[in-house]
Amino acid sequence: MPRYKLLPRTYCNFSETVQLKPHALRLRPREGHELRIESSTLKITPTATPRWHRDVEDASVAIATLISVNAHHACNSRENDTMRRIADSFRRAIAIFVASLLLVHPALAGQERIANYRDTLSLFWGEVYEDGGETLYCGVRFGPEKGPDINVEHILPMSWVMNALDCDTRDQCRRDSDRFNRIEADLHNLYPSRKDVNKARGSFPFGDVRGEYREFPECDFEVDRRRRLVEPRPASRGEIARAMFYMHETYDLDIHTRLGKLLKRWYREDPPGAGEEHRNDVIEQLQGTRNRFIDEPEAAYRLWF
């Protein structure tokens, strides 16, 4: 994947000693599916203290508070005209640079080996969980013969995908959309679940549920039907976040800002373990894609919602 290094520089010269008020620096473009910033450095001379925040367009802005500036030559109208021309050229360079990134960093293609959900079920139980495992939301252990009380949960609900693809029904999506079939069959989004807990979750988003009332006394899974939210046990939250981020980035599926911030917190508090890393290896062998949010601990912090 091509990488580009951009070195914008801004110089301010004055004819005498001055004191500047806090100055807004808009140097960092907004990230998205097509553009990812791997690293950035801001150097200011003389020393200044930058304070970062988001503007109304959700771009990063640094408010730099400088101490003092000693000038070296005067700024007359001719120089001001020159500086304006330089600034215009700089803005054009930024626009061209961002457009190039948009072209060379498209959203990932996603898995293409598994044609449909029916095919993925045999791989899910026969390969990923051939020796058994535990359910995501409740931590219930099961063996190779899982029994009728355990089924498969889509972490990012398929009803959200149906809305994104403008399908009236799931059957319509399966019939008319190859993209939907590949998304529905993606193993990175699938986890074992108790059937009753899966049904209670439905397509509710994840969130913080007030209180500790448990509809399932032996399972730390809380449902707020009035607010249409569910809160899973802490031990499952990192896996949920990484699956959601993978689907968001790979298939360009929206995650609302509030949920995205919550998932970033869960991602930080519950890092991947050996079991999740092994599962990532197995899924790569089966469908040819990895969840990079398991491999790269810092990847989620570069996501924008």
How many H/I helical runs? 10
Mean pLDDT: 82
Q: How large, in whole angstroms, is the Cα Rg?
A: 25 Å
The stretches of 5 or more residues where confidence is low (pLDDT under 50) are: 71-79, 86-107
Task: Using the alpha-carbon principal axes, give the shape.
Answer: elongated
Report the end-to-end length measured between terminal Cα atoms.
Answer: 23 Å
What is the strand arrangement across the widest sheet? Answer: 1-3-2
Q: Sheet bearing the most strands, described? A: 3 strands, antiparallel
Given helix and strand content, the structural type is alpha+beta
- Indicate the proportion of strand residues: 5-15%
- Helix fraction bin: 25-40%
- By DSSP, the count of extended strands is 9
| SSE run | EEEHHEEEHHHEHEEHHHH
Write the layout of secondary structure elements.
Blueprint: E1 23-28, E2 48-54, E3 60-66, H1 77-104, H2 117-128, E4 133-134, E5 141-142, E6 150-154, H3 158-164, H4 170-176, H5 178-184, E7 190-194, H6 195-201, E8 222-224, E9 229-231, H7 234-251, H8 257-269, H9 274-287, H10 292-295
Antiparallel strand pairs: 1-3, 2-3, 4-5, 6-7, 8-9
Helix pairs in contact: 7-8
Features:
single chain; about 300 residues; alpha+beta; 3-stranded antiparallel β-sheet; two-stranded antiparallel ribbon
